[in-house]
Amino acid sequence: MTGFQEPPFKKVKNENGFSSDVSNDGQQCFKSNNGYIMKNNIQNGGPYSKQCAGTIGLEKSGATQNAGHMKKILKQRHSLPIFPARQKLLEELKKNDCVIVIGETGSGKTTQIPQYIHEERWDRKGTICITQPRRVAALSIAKRVAEEMNTNLGALVGYSVRFEESVSSATKLKYVTDGMLLREAISDPLLSKYSWIILDEAHERTVSTDVLFGIVKAAQSNRNCPDKDPLKVIIMSATMDVDHFSNYFNNAPVLYLEGRQHPIEMFYAKQKQDDYVLSTMSTVFQIHKESPAQHDILVFLTGQEEIDSVAHSIRQVAKDLSLAEFPKLRVHPLYAALPSHQQLDVFRETAPGERKVIISTNIAETSITIPGIKYVVDSGRVKIRSFNPSSGFDVLKVKKISQAQAWQRTGRAGREAAGYCYRGYTQEEFRAMALNPVPEILRSNLASVILQLLAVGVKNILNFDFIDKPSPDSVREAVEQLSVIGAIIASSDNLELTPAGRRMAQFPLEPRYAKAILCGPEHGCTDEVLTIVAVLASETIFVNPSGKKELAIRARQKFHSVEGDHITMLKIFRAFKSSKENKMWCHENFLNYRNLSYAVEVRRQLVQICQRCNIPVLSCQQNLEPVRRCLTAGLFTSVAELQIDGKYLTLSSKQECSIHPASVLFGGKPAYVLFTDLVHTGKAYMHINSIVDADWLYEVAPEYFRTRHIKKVCSAVGS
Ligand code: CDP
Ligand code: MG
Questions:
Q1: Among the four 219, 249, 283, 550, which has the fewest Cβ within 10 Å?
Q2: pTM above 0.90, yes or no
Q3: What is the ipTM metric for this complex?
């Protein structure tokens, strides 16, 4: 890709009402939901400046930064839009048990509000817990706040995300993923460790945040008695359906924090683009060539593979551009699965003569603020997981974003100065987009969350205080899935966890994987099942550099198992352990060292959970058939059967599907294939597969399969 298409954009007037934020008299302000505007003069910061400096002085233990650096940070903190409103905000927090705070991304909600509360010593009776939908946000924000407070991460400021934690008894500000807080509620529904719970990024409406709304609301009301410490709650968001939230939280006051949004010039595609990836890339170079300044570019695309490949192409093309003529391009991918050190790279300032291009998923929409962005290129697409009730599977699909998301993306260009936003879609396409995204709870598989709600003690799911109730059909479907794996017993109006279900809820995993682990002892192979589940919980362990794909596949051939991808992964993990977790060995075998190391850590933690639950961890050594039997016990609803015409149909819903070309089983025709995911890219592909035996299916779920007709088909290959 070297030549450029004609610029696909036309310019239109800034029509969204983005404008300079500062009100006429140069003051920042809060306004309440009844239209009352609470102005707060910048000079009226009150005693805060001194207090803040003093506070930072107090947190000297474990101090890591020099005085000059701290001064710079303090200056940055004081220049945030939230700072002048600090006093007003604290007054509202003092008066009310639950407050909703709305403010532009980057105004300082996530990093500052917990510090303000701490500076007032309002956390004496319990930690401040701040939830984030994404682990990368929890990690990077905790790191930033620790730096601002001049303390080591894991001391006063900590984080807790799935399989990774850095907290201590000194931790007062704890950034967690919403899923982690939900798990904590299982053993402590009153969330008694915390004096403040801040549910951040509420507009994202993840399933976990939605469920936490109900759990936190109940905990707050149950702690409202003389013998318990009260719980304060803050709901924070960049945008949201305010009335809906305020009504749900007993008419909680809404504080609008006016951010500093500079004017943004908008460009739309002149005509519909057939290939959004290609048009996104050509737009990046259009900007790069036409605007010699070094301002950075933020590009919104959809997923890891797409982003990595676009990053690679942009680097290739940039190499061909004359260095003298254009700034040097530094390309950074940004997605949730990126290793932490690479995630932190995107925050690093560009050197003189360089321009940064960040290619991100919707992660940079609201939860992460990257300084220095002047140009936003929006593909208008997002990858979302949604549940297909007719097939019974969650599928990851690239979809059009909503108008609310489009405006959030646009807003990233005007944080520090006037900016530009290039939309890879026409104005007509924009108008046809939904106004808001559909909350995840209305579109995904609810099996995990229902298991957790039962573990917390909620028996009647449909009566739970959901902000938006999931449909009875999707609840029924999830209840059926949980009963077929033996996690629950369903009676007419109540659901009861079985002892096995109670154990499954202990694992931070989808119930079907927990079930596979629970079957380990019976077959003497918990050790191997844990390994496979740990690898599945990590990001891909394979490295396939473009141009070297064949070489990579050949290098890994020696690990291939005729039994399928799961056993192949097991063999790789074992070899990695034999190599003494050697980085070079990974490199030679085109394996991802970090993701394998992460799997080692995940496995270690799963072993700990097994020990806590008295599940013996035995190994079956070289006879690996029992491992596939255990997987079948958990994943028997994800099995497809070979048809006479050579196609596969899923047993559960008779959906047509094929073996994914990346699977070691590709090209073969085993009679029954157990798959981990169904991936839809044009057609449905089974991803990460194992060969299973029809008899095992009857063995593990006789009731389930009695109603489903299984034909015996001979394997066309290898038999
Ligand atoms: O939560 P909200 O979007 O309102 O803002 P924030 O996450 O508290 O970020 C406030 C400011 O802190 C940003 O504008 C950045 O300037 C800075 N920040 C940073 O420099 N590095 C981070 N990892 C996070 C925030
Ligand atoms: Mg935030």
A1: 550
A2: no
A3: 0.98
